[in-house]
Amino acid sequence: SGLDPAQPYFQGTPTEVRLDKSDADFVDIIHTDSAPTIPNLGFGIAPAIGHIDFYPNGGEQMPGCGKNPVSQIVDLDGIWEGTRDFVACNHLRSYKYYSDSIIYPNGFLGYPCASYDLFQSGTCFPCPQQGCPNMGHYADKYKGKITQDFLKLYLNTGEARDFPLWRYKVTVTLSGKSKVKGYVNVALYGSDGNTKQYQITKGTLKPDNTYTAYIDAEVNVGKVTKVKFLWNNNWINPTFPKLGASTITVESGQN
């Protein structure tokens, strides 16, 4: 397992010099700091070099690493941890994701995709038939399923522990008499937990229109038992418009 393998002195070198998939039966890589070293101070290698390569949050800038220096140094984990994070926060996220992955065997699903932008837009959702590999400790469960030379995998993580997020596709068809301006929020309830509210759309809300959003939830809800639908006007409307949902469809990424 390569935890953000180093970029300076290694990127672009022959395979004898750097970590490469010829080094073991199964090489999995987590890229967390792969922006160019100059000028971005990226410490991690960018190209796919393993059997499977994970690019959480796109692989360059990790959520929670853009905090201001004071709050980052006086971190929840203490001043020593905070100081290291200030210097190399993105780079060090790789081992934090890995250690979290031990506790969450079904977390950190990596979606095979050509790019992070395509993943964000929902193009590579849900997982293919053979499933998605889990980034981190349980990546080797995928060993027998690799069919291509290089496999790039994308996923999003939280800003702080606990890091895993579970991706859902939520589609809402509205019902009502007239269009209004505002926003629609949805929360998922399930056999294993509930999510907070996520915004599905905002702006003009038209009855009979369908709106789709991809949400990265902080819990794996398991079997969905209930969906909470909330909408809000942007301003006080004297006509008291009514709006509902005729259907809400929830699709979970892993299956």
Your description of this structure?
One of its GO terms (biological process) is lipid catabolic process. It is found in: Cell projection, Neuron projection; Secreted; Zymogen granule membrane. By secondary structure, this protein is of the alpha/beta class. It has 2 domains: 1-164, Alpha/Beta hydrolase fold, catalytic domain (Rossmann fold, 3-Layer(aba) Sandwich); 166-252, PLAT/LH2 domain (Lipoxygenase-1). It has 4 helices and 12 strands. The chain has helices at 37-40, 69-73, 79-103, 116-120; strands at 2-3, 28-30, 52-56, 111-112, 151-155, 166-176, 180-190, 193-194, 198-205, 210-217, 224-233, 243-252. Strands 1-2-3-5-4 form a 5-stranded mixed β-sheet. Strands 7, 8, 9 and 11 form a 4-stranded antiparallel β-sheet that branches.
Amount of helix: 10-25%
Radius of gyration using CA atoms only: 21 Å
CATH class of the largest domain: Alpha Beta
Note the overall shape.
elongated
CATH T-level fold name of the largest domain: Rossmann fold
Number of H/I helices: 4
Main pleated-sheet profile: 5 strands, mixed
User: What number of domains?
Assistant: 2
The CATH architecture of the largest domain can be named as 3-Layer(aba) Sandwich
Head-to-tail CA distance between termini: 26 Å
H/E topology pattern: EEHEHHEHEEEEEEEE
Instruction: List the uncertain runs.
Output: none
Give the overall pLDDT as a whole number.
91
Classification by helices and strands: alpha/beta
Strand content: 25-35%
Give the CATH H-level superfamily of the largest domain: Alpha/Beta hydrolase fold, catalytic domain
What topology, given as strand order, has the largest sheet?
1-2-3-5-4
- Count of beta strands: 12
Domain PLAT: 166-255
Organism: Cephalopterus ornatus
Membrane topology: Peripheral membrane protein
Pathway: Glycolipid metabolism; Glycerolipid metabolism; triacylglycerol degradation
